[in-house]
Amino acid sequence: MTEKNRMNLATISKFREFGLLGFIVLLTIVIQFLNPAFLTLGNLTDLIKNTAILSILALGMMLVLITRGIDLSIGATLALSGMIAALTVSAYPDLHPLLAILIGILVGVVCGVVLGFLVSKVGILPIIASLGLMNAFRGLTFWVGGGEWISAYQMPSSFKNIATSSFLGINTLVIIAIIIFLYFYYFVNNTITGRQIYALGSNPDSAKISGINSHKIYMIVYTMMGGLSGLAGVLWVSKFASAQGNTASGYELTVIAACILGGVSINGGVGKVTGVLLGAVLLGVLDNGLPLIDVSPFWQMGIEGAIILVAVLFNTIVKKTVEKNNRLRRVI
Amino acid sequence: MKKFSLLSFLMLVLLTLLVACGGEETGSDEGNGDSDGGGDDAGERHAIIFKSTGNPFGEKLMEGFEDAITEAGDEAILRAPEQPTVEGQIQIIEELISQQVDSITVVGNDYDGLEPVLTKAKDRGIKVLSTDSAVNGNSRMVHVNQADPEAIGRIQIEAVAEMIDNEGQIAVLSATSQASNQNLWIEWMQKELEKSDYDNIELVEVAYGDDLRDKSVSETEALLQSYPDLKGIIAPTTVGIAAASKVITDKGLQGEVVVTGLGLPSEMAEYIENGVSPWMYLWNPIELGYLAGYTANMLVAEEITGEVGDTFEAGDLGSYEVTETEDGTEVLLGDPFRFDADNIDEWKDVY
Question: What is d(CA B54, CA B93) in angstroms, rounded to the nearest whole number?
Fold first, then answer.
């Protein structure tokens, strides 16, 4: 029985991804038809580069959502680590960019550990704990930055090169995103901890009974999320060559949207790395494509929302059809 | 029991942290007002509300405002909501009304949205004025403007025309599509473009980056993709102009596409030095805040009423006259200030 259920789930998620992929292709064709500049090498490079940070964050968020949690503090964590990294490099221009990245990750990890602790040991609901920390981290960002922005001229070029340099013709941001994607693919599918995350998400009680240390798992997912937010913060500041107190304000919702689009269930236990990647790409295509087609700015947000809704509906219908077929085939 | 006490302790720590952070923001602002405003305890209280916290332009504006108020021996209250929303400003204004301040200077997040609460303030005898970003004529007694919107709009077209030798396609990258000051400047840009001198210049698109880094970058990239012959971008907003300049720099299009508009000197120093933006404009926010402070003082002292023709002296700045606009009256600071390779070094550390 469980064997069969798992198989059904597998088919569903496969279908979901195909549905999403089909939708992206459809959208691409429409945009390309309206503006032939869309499918050019230059534009696609921009698109992938701009989606890199989103996909890094979405992968971390996927783990959090799978454990039935949510992290609303990532935008603030991103801003805080970006600000601290920017302040550090402006004070020590000779600092190696790798060290700047490490500082950012470290700040993010600390933020993640605090949240993980509140969620796992203290038992505060993730949405409440992260909401509180979101404001605390945002306030901290204004405080360390003294309300000022760190501008391009204050950052050494080695730091700005993190986002503009490329390796084998591929932008560094994209390479970092690919490495993280591959690692996550391996981590969730092939490691014991990775599988335990899913087990805990689909049924926390039986997971605990079967000997999974839930505290440890919660700590791991929130710390990873924090670390990735910290990394994203440094990349963000390097990419835009500016650190503000309100950097990426509200970005957590975009990240969550990418996960939901990618088929991650808010109820926990369900979510695939490839799906999340497709979800991020869909949002990337929208962000890149909508400015290219000549629509009124008043409509742009509405269209973006409508397309997201249609994509989710499309997914749900496919999922329901598959489920219905499965039920019909079930032997009672 | 042990677990419970640990939990309470943690909650306490968290709360202290939150309070400490919250207190830091408002505390430092009001603290400054108190310490500088000493000497005259019975002084009036003048409040200024900026769009949102943590904006360097706003910090300087409020600094100038505070200078003017403390010079007069009064107390300045500096406030701003965390997010640039009307709701946040309404809440702050309600608080200020119940504190019975003498004047409220607001940098509006919305042209019409603050009317009910500002009318309420005026009914309670509080003098209401706006600066930088105006609120509608019914909500305010007078608006203190950086420069004539007409001059701001026209000067940016003149600048871009000079940079591209009066020929080629240009585009505008603005803030949000509802931003009242940006929209007004763009209207004047379009009027300036009607002149026959600019017959060979074509304004191909007005794009909106919403003052967000990522969106402004996407919009700039889209402009470059859609119009391969684009010669210039005018961005009359600080985030937009820096984001557009960054894109041009990264793509190595220096000299092919110029960027100008209104930007913060610190944000633009890099791009003025590397030639992406030969020059750009902004007013002096310290002087703007200073003038707003003086105007607030004059209104409370009832030396002016905000009617057309009122004149007053504003400390070091000289004398000013209240003039008429399409909606309400205003005081004009002066022409926007030009930042170029020669003077950017001395300004980039200021704001």
Answer: 19
Q: Return the residue of B nearest to A149 by Cα.
A: B56
As to burial, measured by CB atoms within 10 angstroms (0-12 exposed, 13-18 middle, 19+ buried), residue B259 is buried
A90 CB within 8 Å of a chain B CB: no
A305 or A331, which is more confident: A305
- Return the structure tokens found at A281: 């790409």
- Domain residue spans of chain A: 39-292
- A39-292: CATH topology: ABC transporter involved in vitamin B12 uptake, BtuC (1.10.3470)
Q: Which residues contact A150 (CB under 8 A, 6 or more apart)?
A: A83, A86, A87, A90, A237, A242, A243
Burial of B339 (0-12, 13-18, 19+ CB in 10 A): buried
pLDDT band at B53 (very low <50, low <70, confident <90, very high): confident
- At residue B74, what are phi and psi to the nearest 5 degrees? -105, 180
Domains and CATH numbers, chain B: 37-146+286-333 (3.40.50.2300), 149-282 (3.40.50.2300)
Predicted local confidence at residue B346, as pLDDT:
81
Q: Does A283 touch chain B (CB under 8 A)?
A: no
Task: State the ipTM, two decimals.
Answer: 0.86
Chain B nearest CA to A179, separation (Å): 23
Task: List the beta bridge partners of residue B144.
Answer: B131, B331
Strands (E), chain A: 166-167, 170-171
Quick: pLDDT tens for A260-285: 888 888 888 888 999 999 999 999 99
Does the CB of B56 have a partner CB in chain A at under 8 Å? yes
Q: Is residue A303 less than 8 Å (CB to CB) from chain B?
A: no
Q: What is the pTM of this model?
A: 0.79
Best CA proximity match to A149, nearest among B268, B64, B181: B268
- Coil, helix or strand for B143? strand
